[in-house]
Amino acid sequence: MSAATDARPATRPGGAARPEPVGRRSGRNRLDRLRARSAWGFAAPALLVVAAVTVFPVVYSIVLSFADVEIGYDGFAIQGFGFDNYAALLQSADWYRALGFTVLYTVVTVTVELVLGMLVAIVLERLGATRGWMLALMLVPWSLVTIVNAQLWKYVYDSTYGVATWFFALFGEAPVILGEPVPAITGLMLADIWKTTPFVAIILLAGLVQISEDHYEAAELDGANAWQTFWRVVLPQLAPTLTIAVLFRVLQAFGVFDLPFVLTNGGPGTSTQSLAIMGYKVLFQDINIGPGAAIATSTAVIVAAGCLLFLRAFRNQAKGGEA
Fold first, then answer.
1. Which residue has the higher pLDDT, 224 or 152?
2. CATH number at residue 208
3. Three-state secondary structure along the chain?
4. Structural domain boundaries enclosing 32
């Protein structure tokens, strides 16, 4: 009798699903809750560590950005809270210069890396057996620690024996690359593009290989040329992958610190001083805790707002494409 009962279909004669018994449903809910509690229990130690090393410092930095901090021999003490640190920040010419350099650096490097990365990814997508070797070679610049990469380019730009100095000397007087504002900014961008373009190319390659050949065949049947196929077929399909690449690179580029710190230390003058370097100097060299925390907090707010606006624009474009 039980076997016959179990063999009955799960739907009623009219096609509607047969309701699950209340006892079985409640038992399954209890099992789900038990599994959820067990999962949270196993994850709790890791989450506590993440909160201790990430969430707490961020919250504490935001609190300090509003604080009037007094430094003494025994440490520091908070005298009060207010908006004086942010008011001083908005009146600081150095902060605006650092913001301008950071925005310029981010826009130029991310744009160039996306263009070059797309070209490299298209070439790699068409390679056969040699694709693995090319990917391995491309990962060499990306695998270098940024400090090592910066030191390498410092040798290249050296005003006495650098390769770049020798090259420019072939066409006339060679500039002191790291000693003049425009060459120094250009040199920083070139070093970042050389290191990070392979990373962008690999991300875009992962999106390219997911595009079905049917889309290319349909575009060819419609009479589309290579350029039209790229803009109307490839690029819309790559939109989610491009979004990931842009977000990764904007977050990295806007918080750039180690590359200019090693190459120029923010110089000459303050021409290559990013917001991260300015915050470091104010916080750790000048020992101004409140203003330094305000610089760090303002940087995080700006980059978060930029990423949110970009995501919102991408979401609206995606909805428009679906419509």
1. 152
2. 1.10.3720.10
3. CHHHHHCCCCECCCCCECCCCHHHHHHHHHHHHHHHHHHHHHHHHHHHHHHHHHHHHHHHHHHHHCEEEEEECCEEEEEEECCHHHHHHHCCHHHHHHHHHHHHHHHHHHHHHHHHHHHHHHHHHCCCCCHHHHHHHHHHHHHCCHHHHHHHHHHHCCCCCCHHHHHHHCCCCCCCHHHCHHHHHHHHHHHHHHHHHHHHHHHHHHHHCCCCHHHHHHHHHCCCCHHHHHHHHHHHHHHHHHHHHHHHHHHHHHCCCHHHHHHCCCCCCCCCCCHHHHHHHHHHHCCCHHHHHHHHHHHHHHHHHHHHHHHHHHHHHHHHHHC
4. 1-59
Compute and round to an integer the Cα radius of gyration of the chain.
28
Q: Are residues 137 and 280 in the same domain?
A: yes
Indicate the helix (H) or strand (E) that contains 303: helix 289-322
Residue found by looking up tokens 């805790």 in the block: 289
In a domain, 64, yes or no: no
Judgement on whether residues 161 and 26 belong to the same structural domain of the protein:
no
Q: Is 298 helix (H, G, I), strand (E, B) or coil?
A: helix
**Whole-prediction pTM:** 0.81
Angstrom distance (rounded) from CA 244 to CA 246: 6
Residue 318's pLDDT is what? Answer: 61
Residues 240 and 110 grouped into a single domain? yes
2 versus 133: which is more confidently predicted? 133
**Helix/strand/coil for 37:** helix
